[in-house]
Input
Amino acid sequence: MAKKPVFFSFHFDNDCWRAGQVRNMGVVEGDEPVSSHDWEAIQNDDEKVKKWIDEKMKYKQCVIVLTGSATGGRKWINYEIVKGWDAGKGIVGINIHNLKDMNGHQSSKGTNPFSFIKYGNTGNNLNSIVNLYDPPHSDSKLVYGYINENIEKWVEEAIKIRASH
Output
């Protein structure tokens, strides 16, 4: 089975290291990470950020929202979720708070980022449709293994869910 092209969405400041672990698993074909230098150059210009996101997301089949302690409700996370959904891409979330950061620390579990986004005219939030997976382990190595083992299946499922809505 060919690797699915995906866009990774995450809170850069808090979860870049954790996101890098998931990105480097190599199970899915992820987008190129933005360097901290490039992010600093565009982060204060909303139009440049939107253009960067739109360009990086263009040929992807799924948006994977890597959810840490402060991911839910963030402006650019919300934009990426809505942009992906409106473009017909699969959307899936994975809690990554129990992966260790570069200093060996884990984080607290954050809120569901899909609970901040309304779905159509239903009055429901996107969390009623989109899955947020929470690896059932607290040990970072087991969390890594669980994500690595399941991420491809979660992406396939997210694409099917989106196709049915």
Observations:
- The first strand starts at residue 5 and ends at 9.
